[in-house]
Amino acid sequence: MKTYLVGGAVRDRLLGRSVGDRDWVVVGATPQAMLDAGFRPVGKDFPVFLHPDTGEEHALARTERKSGHGYHGFTVHAAPDVTLEDDLARRDLTVNAMAEDADGTVIDPWGGQRDLAARVLRHVSPAFAEDPVRILRLARFAARFHDFSVAPETARLMREMVTAGEVDHLVAERVWQELARGLMEDRPSRMFEVLRDCGALARLLPEVDRLWGVPQRADYHPEVDTGVHLMMVLDMSARLQGSLAVRYACLGHDLGKGTTPPDVLPRHIGHEGRSAQLLKAVGQRLRVPTDCRELADVVAREHGNLHRSSEFGAEAVFRLLERCDAIRKPQRFHEVLLACECDARGRLGLEDTPYAPGPRLRQALDCVLAVDTAAVSAQALALGLTGPAIGQRIAQARLHALTQHLSTR
Q1: N or C, fewer C-beta in 10 Å, the chain?
Q2: Which cofactor(s) does the record list (predicted)?
Q3: Which pLDDT score is estimated for 272?
Q4: Confidence band (pLDDT; 50, 70, 90) for 240?
């Protein structure tokens, strides 16, 4: 029985990057031998075990055979006679198909070190085409290693997979999982560029795919093309270290521009409401987590008003805060403002321009939250008011405080 470090840990060490989780392959063992050694089984579909001391995953060397469509359409064979090379051959990319033995020697039967040096993402074998998740994984790796290119033969294979309908069999949970991880990489735009190039974006997120080629007013958007703008916004969300919810909101904030009637272009009147409706459908289809869906909805509906809020008086600002549910969820409102800042700065030549509405609205919210609602409620009760009448008194007190605050700005 021999154990080898495999996959991303080997790749990242060779790249000089910090190594996170470490995965291991065990050659020449059986499930019973692993149990006898104290390993704990965790794999339902695959023979995976946790080390009794480190808790790290150890998988028996295995091969796979295509037996159906999609991610689960495989028959797995794990046995003592499966070699390390057999196991590495089933992996997706050459840079992920390397192993390291106990002495630190790298086993690289598929040229992973060569492709690391050349900064290329290349599939290991034609078996890549058997699992459509690999398209998403490669796109995600492109977002992480954004100076890597996709090998021409790999790009061609992915286009053939899309044409064959393989991506149509992907389950929503796995699509969201890979998209979410890609959104959190250093250059999320690369993920969408790769998916768009092979045609997968049109199948998985047609609402996003249709934004390329849609013009915008050049006085607001020097980059003009809506798809180009979206990629700039996504990369700005990474630059400003936005959360997943912020980055998802950036992804969906302008979806409605893809459905603007051609006769009114490049103006996009009412795109905010259309974006919110499209996001609702996307959220249901991909089973997007609630926090991401809710933040994206607010940003889609209100980003135009938030951008223009420096022109608003106290009543309009107060109504805007209420529509954003900022008083009840102030932390989420700060994320709304961050997504809007990404939108404003995700424009050609404006990447380093300060987002003026941000500080003004944060201060406005702080002013409103500083109102002593307990004291206002007590005064209302003393006057015999109840229920909605008390809420109205609190709103009046908050508006009064905001009016005074803005009059001094």
Answers
A1: C
A2: Ni(2+); Mg(2+)
A3: 97
A4: very high
Q: Is 8 annotated as a binding residue?
A: yes
Domain spanning 1-112, CATH architecture: 2-Layer Sandwich (3.30)
3-state secondary structure at position 129: helix
Task: State the pTM of this model.
Answer: 0.91
The amino acid at residue 159 is R
**129 CA to centre of own chain:** 24
Relative to beta strand 57-60, strand 23-27 is: parallel
Q: What is the pLDDT of residues 299-309, one digit of tens each?
A: 999 999 999 99
Q: Which two tokens stand for residue 313?
A: 């008086």
Task: Return the exposure string of 388-405: e unless at least 16 CB atoms fall within 10 Å of the residue's CB, then b.
Answer: eebeebbbebbbebbeeb
247 assigned to a ligand binding site: no
* 101 assigned binding-site residue: no
Buried/exposed code over 276-293 (b: 16+ C-beta within 10 A; e: otherwise): bebbeebbeebebeeebb
DSSP per-residue codes, 159-219: HHHHHTTGGGG--HHHHHHHHHHHHTSS-HHHHHHHHHHHTHHHHH-HHHHTTTT-B--TT
H/E run at residue 74: strand 74-78
Is residue 62 part of an annotated ligand binding site? no
Is residue 11 within 8 Å of 96, Cβ to Cβ? yes
Identify the pLDDT of residue 4: 94
137 among the known binding-site residues?
Answer: yes
285 belongs to an annotated ligand binding site = no
Q: How many residues does the chain have?
A: 409
So where are the chain's domains?
1-112, 236-357, 370-407
Residue 146's contacts (CB-CB under 8 Å, 6 or more residues apart) are 185, 186, 187, 190
Query: Under DSSP, is residue 78 helix (H, G, I), strand (E, B) or coil?
Result: strand
Give the span between the Cα atoms of 16 and 204, in whole angstroms.
34
